[in-house]
Amino acid sequence: MTAPVTGPALLPASMRFIQRDWLSCNQLVLFDAEGATLIDSGYVKNAAETVALVRAALATNAGALPLTRVINTHLHSDHCGGNAALASAFGCAIIVPEASSRAVADWDEEALTYRATGQRCDPFAATGSIAPGDTFRAGGVEWMAHAAPGHDPESLIFHCPELAVLVSADALWERGFGVIFPELAGESGFAEQGAVLDLIESLQPRVVVPGHGPVFADAPAAIRHARSRLAAMAADPVRHARSALKVLIKYRLLDLERERLDAMIGELATARIMVDAAGLLEMTPAAALAWAADELVAQGQLRRDGEWLVDA
């Protein structure tokens, strides 16, 4: 189990950072006098671990405060897969981006992208929503929500001006950012991601809490790297689609651990995002999925066991 940590030189005592592996996103626990707020909740496969990690983080605070709410930056499966388990364990509120609230209420797995990516998420009920420009108090300070389209058109990032701390979700990591999913469907996403990087630069964060990877302090260097990567993607959208396919297949095998190639193709050949990415490659979905699997095996990310693909 990943241990909850707080970078003592970077985050105040009112915050606990929990760094996860790449199947689950990171979490941030924010303490107030009446209870704690959690930002994001990881993937459903790791939901029991998320509950245990959050419980351990809560116990490190004097008085063992209750978890009163979870606030999601966005609703990709690796950011909200623990919502149902946390609500059951702690009776906490679940707050989602306003733009995604209807899809949650209807539990529309296509709109929420779970069916479109071949991923899983336990259904949960949202008890509130948050929109760009909204503020909330957590960890003893005020946070503002900002729109962060690009990776996900409905994503938010959270900024604390008082402490110059930014929860960047998948809009900025120390060495990159998430797949730009709208571009796979022929919609604009690269320009929006560039505008989000401009926004983050204007906020001048002292500390960035990303959705994946460690907390970091050198936002300018991360932004420079992200802009370089974004320029390369925009110059070669087909390369971006190839990378996205490999990311999605690797993620699926991190989840399932092993799967027959024919079964994977049978399930994913009609998944919307896979179909879109295959179209950019001018391949059938089945051929594109087989190509991605071969590439991941050649790179040592997966291995073959007869007709099975196995996470390496």
Describe the fold and architecture.
The strands form 3 sheets. Strands 1-2-3-4-5-6 form a 6-stranded mixed beta sheet, with helices on one face. It has a 5-stranded mixed beta sheet with strand order 7-8-9-10-11. It starts with 14 loop residues before the first strand and ends with a strand. Helix 9 (237-256) packs across helix 12 (285-298) and helix 11 (272-280) packs across helix 12 (285-298). The chain is built from 12 helices and 14 strands. The protein has helices at 47-59, 77-80, 83-90, 101-106, 114-117, 181-184, 190-203, 219-235, 237-256, 261-268, 272-280, 285-298, and strands spanning 15-18, 27-31, 36-39, 67-71, 93-97, 128-130, 135-138, 141-147, 156-160, 165-169, 207-210, 258-260, 302-305, 308-311. The protein is of the alpha/beta class and 312 residues long. The chain folds into 2 domains: 15-234, Ribonuclease Z/Hydroxyacylglutathione hydrolase-like (Metallo-beta-lactamase, Chain A), CATH 3.60.15; 237-311, Arc Repressor Mutant, subunit A.
